[in-house]
Write a structure and sequence with these properties.
The chain has 210 residues and is of the alpha/beta class. Helix content is 34%, strand content 17%. The chain has a seven-stranded mixed sheet, with helices on both faces. α2 packs parallel to α3 and α5 packs across α6. It binds S-adenosylmethionine (SAM). S-adenosylmethionine binds next to β2 and α4.
Length: 210
C-alpha cells in the first residue's frame, strides 16, 4: 500500500475536485497540505468542521473524507461563488459554486452554503467548529475578519488553519493572509501556531484553554 487512501478514491478526488497550490502531487499520490488537514481531523474528531473558500472543492472533499473515515462529524463548506473579472473578491474563484452541480460532494458529509462567510455566521448563530480552514477573501482586512469570525466559534483545543500565508514568493494572494496572521498572533500570544513556509504557505493555530 502506497497511500493511506484507497487508490481509486485518491484518483477520484484528484480527478474531480481540482487540486491547485497545496503541495499536492497526483502522480505520487501525495495530498500535500490536504493530507495535513486529513490527519488533524482524524485526531481531533470534531462533530462539526468548517472550510471557507475553494476553487472546485479539493480541500473540502478531503476534509469530508476524513470525517467520513472518522464515522462522525460533518463539514460546513462556505463559498460566496465569486467569479474572477466580475466580483472584487474572487481571488481566482471561477463562479463554480453559483451553478454548483447537485450533490457535488456525493457520499461525503459536506454541506455546501453558497453565500459569504459573513452571511453564514449571521445565519448559523450557534455553530461551533472543532477544526476550521480559511481560503477565502485574501485581503488583509478580509482575512482578519474571517479569522475573527471563525476563532470566536472555536472551543479550546480546536484548530484554525489558513492557506496562502507564506509571503516569501511575493505572490499577491499571500500578502494579505501573511499580514493578517502576523497581526493575529501578536494580538493573541496565547495561541500556538505552526507556519509552514512551503509555497504558498499553510498556518495552523491552536486555541489554548480558556
Ligand atoms: C478560489 S479560492 C482561492 C483559490 C484557492 N487558494 C485554491 O487553492 O484553489 C477563493 C474563494 O473565496 C471565495 N470568497 C471570497 N470572499 C468570500 C467571502 N467573503 N465569503 C465566502 N467566500 C468568499 C471566492 O468565491 C472564491 O471561490
Amino acid at each position: 500500500m502506497k497511500t493511506l487512501f484507497n487508490t481509486d478514491e485518491l484518483r477520484r478526488i484528484f480527478g474531480k475536485y481540482l487540486a491547485t497550490h497545496h503541495q499536492q502531487d497526483a502522480d505520487t499520490g501525495s495530498l500535500g497540505f490536504a493530507g495535513i488537514h486529513y490527519a488533524f481531523l482524524r485526531v481531533l474528531k470534531p462533530m462539526r468542521a468548517l472550510a471557507v473558500g475553494s476553487a472546485k472543492g479539493f480541500i473540502p472533499a478531503v476534509m469530508g473524507k476524513a470525517l467520513a473515515d472518522n464515522g462522525v462529524g460533518a463539514l460546513d463548506f462556505v463559498d460566496a461563488g465569486y467569479k474572477e473579472g466580475v466580483d472584487a473578491n474572487a481571488w481566482s474563484g471561477q463562479g463554480f459554486w453559483r451553478d454548483k452541480p447537485d450533490d457535488w460532494f456525493e457520499g461525503l458529509p459536506v454541506r455546501t452554503f453558497v453565500m459569504t462567510f459573513e452571511e453564514f455566521c449571521a445565519e448559523a448563530k450557534s455553530a461551533i467548529w472543532g477544526y476550521a480552514y480559511i481560503d477565502s477573501d485574501h485581503s488583509r482586512e478580509g482575512t482578519s475578519r474571517h479569522m475573527t469570525l471563525a476563532w470566536n466559534r472555536l472551543p479550546a483545543g480546536a484548530i484554525l488553519s489558513l492557506h496562502d500565508t507564506d509571503a516569501a514568493s511575493g505572490h499577491p494572494s499571500t500578502q494579505g493572509p501573511h499580514a493578517a496572521v502576523k497581526e493575529f498572533l501578536e494580538a493573541v500570544p496565547s495561541a500556538s501556531a505552526v507556519a509552514l513556509s512551503a509555497f504558498p504557505g499553510l498556518t495552523l493555530i491552536q486555541k489554548q484553554g480558556a
